[in-house]
Amino acid sequence: MRKLLLPGLIVIAALLIMARLFYLQILDDSYIQKSDNNAIKIKYEYPERGYIYDRNGQLLVANQPSYDIMVTPKDVKNIDTLEFCNLLNITKEDFIKKIEKARVYSPMLPSVFIAQLNKMEYAAFQEKIRKFSGFEILKRSLRDYQVTVGANIFGYITQVNDNIIKKKPYYKSGDLIGMQGVEQMYEEVLRGTKGVKYIQRDRFNREIGPYKDGIYDTIAVQGEDITLTIDAELQKYGEALMVNKRGGIVAIEPKTGEILALVTAPSYDPAILVGRERSKNYTMLYNDSIAKPLYDRGLLAEYPPGSPFKILTGLAGLQEEVIDENTTFVCHHGFSYGRGAFMKCHCPGGNIKLHNGIYKSCNAYFANVFKRTIEKYNKPRFGVDAWSAHMKSFGLGNFMGYDLPPGRKGHIPTSRYYDRWYPNGGWKSTTIISNSIGQGEVTMTPIQLANMMATIANEGYYYTPHVIKKIEKHKIDKKFTTKHITSIDKQYFRPVIDGLFDVYNMGTAASLRVEGIEICGKTGTAENFTKINGKRVQLTDHSVFVAFAPRNDPKIAIAVLVENGYWGARWAGPISSLMIEKYLKKTITRTDLEKRMLEGSLQHEYDKVTSGVPFTINNR
Q1: Looking at the structure, do residues 211 and 270 belong to the same domain, yes or no?
Q2: DSSP assigned state of 24
Q3: What pLDDT is recorded for position 22?
Q4: Which of 35, 150, 247, 251 has its CA 20 to 30 A from that of 292?
């Protein structure tokens, strides 16, 4: 047996070596390709990206031809550098820098020398390309925007950097990739698949035909088209209404969670991030640290929600059975919660129930409801955690899970949060009473506010907001068709909805009614603080408004927040009414509101940060 062991090991080792050689030489051609790098030239064929449509089939984003000058450093020999630089309007220093960068990437592989030539530049260079060995022109497609709105939704296309190449081997130097918006989220669907051709070269570096008769070549596969949930006309109208204002608008179809409009202001024309000026324009937008056009306020900005939050305070009180529809509190133009501590209220006062508490927006009523909710439990920590759980069942205090890259959680405090702030205890319901009216430690993003109203419109459930409606040859993610049910029983939503309806009939939005549409809404004014030169300064309040319509069988839920907009009914309310009418009727009857919103500007308020002019403190 021992005599057979050594020969057996030799035979096994020989078989393993032969198997490995067979794999490397016959099955796996990668090593051959690497060793033959000097003799084989790789050419990529880039597919068109998929088109993007709106919910009504309107084409939003198409493609246009673009031309990149590619360079293979080892092949650059005996060219007239001065003529080359003059032809492309670059300096000799730029030329040297670009060649060195390409050589670092690979002296033997082509990489981008100058990207995105226009047709005239391409024609001029193509005419003389034979004089510049080592250079070639690669045709690509760039985005061609059919609309001037929705930049924050689309995102943009840019060249991959070294970090992306390391993480994602599919991409090579000079490749394009989607960044931000749906271009990033649906990159693998939209980009398609590159085609690859292997070209055999002789010892004189001349192309002599396909390598191995093209058996390794692949053809480019065009990217797939996608349809968004966005209504392009509504998006366009929303962006027009927000000119010379800062803030966000989010409109959602309640029954599906489909985002109808996602407006951030200020915004920009997506076309400026296409072509050779893209880098300069992006830098200009990025460096605008005051207006922040790249900052999507609809998804990222966390604001105190103000009075719209009273809706949830009331629902939690009903669910916890500390009030019913007829529970009455007396409002003496405010709520006293301690010695010298008084929360002002601008409602007419008197006996307040849930119904008129909503349409009069009574601070005292909802402060009492919140206090009872917390004090139902024998310790305030248990009450706060019960209240917090109800709020979070609406998707608050957490990422929404929508299909766009940026997001913020907002904040719904728990007992642990207050234990950190008050390590020795001593906090109670009145310590945190500001939460009852959407101030205090509560913050929400506009998309969370819109989703809150969609949930109320649905009487207790919502679908995760999303912008994808259809993908060619694919199904959309199941999470967008999964129903989320709140901790509030359905029976408690109808009385709240009745109160929201009367906000438009006899309450704080009575002047914003639209003939023929039953709108349920809630005005809000959110206090606004910032730090200037290290000091906490109160700025002009934000204008907040939330709504849905029609009252029965709702088709649209909306949240509008206008920074420094004084109070809810002044800016956010009119914009909400106009957006609802535009979506449901397609025409506008409230031309008085439209004229005021289209022509109105809040730039004088935004200038106060640097001018030193006092801010307007409304205390509404």
Answers
A1: no
A2: I
A3: 58
A4: 251
Would you state the structure tokens that stand for residue 361, as one six-digit string? 């927006």
Residue ranges of alpha helices (H) inside 431-534 are 446-457, 493-505
| Residues of the chain with confidence (pLDDT) below 50 | 31-36, 619-620
Question: Is 437 in the same domain as 564?
Answer: yes
DSSP 42-78: EEEEPPPPPPEE-TTS-EEEEEEEEEEEEE-GGG--S
pLDDT tens-digit readout, 165-208 = 888 988 887 788 999 999 999 999 999 988 888 888 776 667 77
Token pair for 353: 């129930």
Q: What is the pLDDT of residue 526?
A: 79
- The three-state (H, E, C) secondary structure of 171-186, written as one string: CCCCCEEEECHHHHHC
Separation between Cα atoms, residue 455 and residue 459, nearest integer Å: 6
CATH of the domain at 49: 3.90.1310.10
Q: What is the pLDDT of residue 448?
A: 96
For residues 495 and 172, what is the distance between their CA atoms, to the nearest angstrom?
60
Instruction: Please list, in sequence order, all residues whose beta carbon lies within 8 angstroms of the beta carbon of residue 563, skipping any fewer than 6 positions away.
Output: 245, 246, 247, 297, 528, 542, 602, 606
Is there a cis peptide before residue 550, judged by omega within 30 degrees of 0?
yes
Residue recorded with tokens 């409230």: 590
Helix axes 119-128, 81-88, angle to 10 degrees: 160
The pair of structure tokens assigned to 475 is 């199904």
| Domain carrying residue 332 | 232-281+295-611
pLDDT of residue 32: 46
Same domain (yes/no): 218, 265: no
Return the amino acid letter for 464: T
Q: How many CA atoms lie within 13 A of 458 on its CB side?
A: 24
Domain boundary among 212, 228, 244: 228
Instruction: Kindly report, residue by residue over 237-254, the tens digit of the pLDDT.
Output: 999 999 999 999 999 999
What pLDDT does 33 receive?
A: 47
Structure tokens at 70: 């590619």
Sole residue written with tokens 């809000």? 524
